[in-house]
Amino acid sequence: MKPHIYTDTSVIGGVYDIEFKEWSNKIITEFEKGNKIIVISDLTLRELEEAPDQVKNVLNRIPNKNKEFIELNDEAKKLANKYIADENISNKYIVDAQHIAIATVYKVDVVVSWNFKHIVNLDKIRIYNSINLKHGYHQIEIRSPREVLNEE
After folding, report:
1. β pairing state of 37-41 and 67-70
2. pLDDT at 128 > cutoff 60
3. Using 50, 70 and 90 to split pLDDT, how confident is the model at 92?
4. 105: phi > 0 → left, psi -120 to 50 → alpha, else beta; which?
5. Is pLDDT at 87 greater than 80 in this prediction?
6. Pick from 72, 48, 70: which is nearest to 60 by CA?
7. Deepest of 11, 84, 107, 141, by most Cβ within 10 A of its Cβ?
8. Residue 96 burial (CB < 10 Å; 0-12/13-18/19+)?
9. What mean pLDDT is reported for the chain?
10. Which domains does the chain have, with CATH numbers?
């Protein structure tokens, strides 16, 4: 079964970022080939509305059969608020918490991001997962794109 990978805006924009373009392009290529399924939320699509056209067009490279769209529903909003209520995740980073909550609620295989401060961060991952377990959800894998590539 192909892994379903929740991809945040940083990975999509990373295609044009000097620091991240090599790895962002490699994972986008894996989505294009159908080796992996990209999971995109309405939250990510809203964030992309503010991006330059070249970044918006990255998703057009990926065939629809290799894309899955999910939504920030009430359950994910409530879970994100639980991350914030823990007080280890600041309310000003609610969008980051919502990305994790969406991926958790929809049971994606892994979240990929270049956000090392609030998402791909060992302390934050532990917080997300402890709250997930406390409220009956599974633990969520959170990685950088480089960590989920099938390199030869």
Report:
1. parallel
2. yes
3. confident
4. alpha
5. no
6. 48
7. 11
8. buried
9. 94
10. 4-148 (3.40.50.1010)
Q: What is the C-alpha to C-alpha distance for residues 135 and 73, in angstroms, rounded to an integer?
A: 17
- pTM listed for this prediction: 0.94
Residues forming a β-bridge with 67: 38
Q: Give 68's DSSP letter.
A: E
Question: At 4, phi and psi to the nearest 5?
Answer: -100, 120
Query: Phi, psi (5° rounding) for residue 8?
Result: -90, 175
Integer angstrom CA distances of residue 57 from 3, 13, 25: 23, 10, 13
Contacts of 44 (CB under 8 A, 6+ apart): 7, 8, 9, 12, 99
Side-chain-facing half-sphere of 140: CA atoms under 13 Å: 35
